[in-house]
Amino acid sequence: MEIWINPACSKCRSAIGLLDAEGADYTVRRYLEDVPSEDEIRDVLDRLGLEPWDITRTQEDAAKELGLKDWARDASSRERWITALSRHPKLIQRPIITADDGTAVVGRSEEAVRDALSR
């Protein structure tokens, strides 16, 4: 299990606290420092069953500078979104937990973290 975190994020700290309390075996990835490649983002999206715009923090300054709210959200625009997430990792929703069964969850709630633990 791996968890992508920003240590300044309270939801990330809560998720790690719950993983620790449950004795989970996991690896921490500080994704702002160890930026995911476009291929890694594609893999996580496949594991999540989501599209890149579904995990994009659209209120971040970088999102506003890029004009993301006006970008198309369709198959032909998918790669553009993935490139933006790789170049601006702060746009990636957090925390993302990759579960041992090959799936992933966005662990913003206790229920989502527990879901990852149960896989």
> Can you summarize the main beta sheet?
4 strands, mixed
Shape estimate = globular
Q: What's the Cα radius of gyration? A: 14 Å
Q: What is the terminal separation in angstroms?
A: 10 Å
**How many individual β-strands?**
4
Q: What percentage of residues falls in helices of 4 or more residues?
A: 25-40%
Structural class: alpha+beta
User: What is the N-to-C order of secondary-structure elements (H for helix, E for strand)?
Assistant: EHEHHHEEH
Portion in strands: 5-15%
Strand order of the largest sheet: 2-1-3-4
Low-confidence stretches: none
Give me the number of helical elements: 5
Q: What is the residue-averaged pLDDT?
A: 96
Keyword list:
119 residues; four-stranded mixed sheet
